[in-house]
């Protein structure tokens, strides 16, 4: 089935079906739109999908990443005393000893409150009922409106917990204090800690167990916007050896070795365009014509 743009959908599909250990398709090629469609068709064929979301998805929503030269860490650094690093204020013990350091730098989080979901999030919502679980490493809660099971692996900024009485604080309360750069206190007088996972703080073991349980029935793992450079995600990948993996990321990801009969496909470039094109090509939804 030849197309005017020179693409050959059948050949691309055969490449996917052949399940080569490493198939790297560049979204910069002139066949990119056709490749995007084939990838969406492949994803649509699966029935038990788990999606892992990283910072790249939030960047596409206008939220700065953490470590780039113009990212959140750089912005937060300017409000800190010279003897503190940004990493210091995300340390659990430092927060407990001096929460004002964190909150004074947290003004940089204020813009996150106004961020809106992207085409990626709309696509995830339309994947029901095949979407088994979304695991997000982001703390901005852009995925909060999804109706599928959702795990915030690193917590979220939009809620907090009193360190004295365990009373929960609302999104409005937390962002009011981020904007002001002032410590949030509970009515009991206790300090409210944002519900994010700080350095030297353990991730809830129940969340890890939930991921392991869900992985047993997964037939496709979709990874978007993350390079797997941090724990615990690097270690969790071993639970997905039995299913196909599709990675959508700006740069190549070093995946663990996988069985030869399992697809390990990486699509490099702006993965957002895949879903924007799918959305724009159909009046009724992402999957028309796919």
UniProtKB/TrEMBL annotation:
Gene Ontology molecular function, alphabetical = histone deacetylase activity, NAD-dependent; metal ion binding; NAD+ binding
Transmembrane stretches in the record are none
* Deacetylase sirtuin-type domain boundaries: 28-279
Catalytic residues in the record: 154
* Pfam families per record: SIR2
Any one of the GO CC terms:
nucleus
| Record-listed Zn(2+) binding positions | 162, 165, 186, 188
Its keywords, alphabetically, are:
Metal-binding, NAD, Transferase, Zinc
Does NAD appear among the keywords? Answer: yes
- According to UniProt, the name of this protein is Deacetylase sirtuin-type domain-containing protein
Question: What organism, scientifically named, is this protein from?
Answer: Blastocystis hominis
């Amino acid at each position: 089935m030849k197309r005017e743009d020179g693409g050959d959908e059948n050949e691309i599909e055969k490449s996917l079906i052949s399940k080569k250990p490493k198939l790297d398709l560049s979204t910069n090629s002139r066949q990119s739109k056709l490749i995007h469609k084939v990838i969406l068709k492949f994803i649509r064929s699966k029935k038990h999908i788990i999606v892992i979301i990283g910072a790249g998805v939030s960047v596409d929503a206008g939220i700065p990443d953490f470590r780039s030269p113009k990212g959140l860490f750089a912005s937060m650094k300017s409000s800190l005393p010279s003897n503190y690093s940004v990493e210091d204020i995300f340390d659990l013990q430092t927060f407990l000893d001096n929460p004002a350091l964190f909150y004074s730098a947290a003004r940089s989080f204020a813009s996150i409150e106004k961020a809106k979901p992207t085409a990626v999030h709309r696509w995830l919502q339309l994947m029901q009922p095949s979407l088994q679980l979304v695991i997000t490493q982001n703390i901005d809660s852009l995925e909060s409106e999804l109706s599928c099971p959702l795990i915030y692996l690193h917590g979220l900024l939009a809620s907090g917990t009193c360190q004295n009485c365990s009373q929960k604080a609302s999104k409005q309360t937390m962002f009011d204090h981020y904007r002001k750069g002032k410590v949030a206190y509970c009515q009991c007088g206790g300090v409210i800690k944002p519900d994010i996972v700080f350095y030297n703080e353990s991730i809830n073991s129940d969340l890890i167990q939930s991921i392991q349980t869900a992985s047993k029935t997964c037939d496709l793992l979709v990874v978007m916007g993350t390079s797997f450079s941090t724990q615990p995600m690097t270690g969790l990948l071993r639970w997905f050896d039995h299913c196909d993996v599709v990675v959508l990321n700006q740069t190549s990801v070093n995946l663990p070795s996988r069985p030869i009969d399992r697809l390990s496909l990486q699509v490099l470039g702006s993965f957002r365009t895949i879903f924007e094109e799918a959305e724009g090509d159909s009046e009724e939804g992402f999957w028309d014509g796919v």
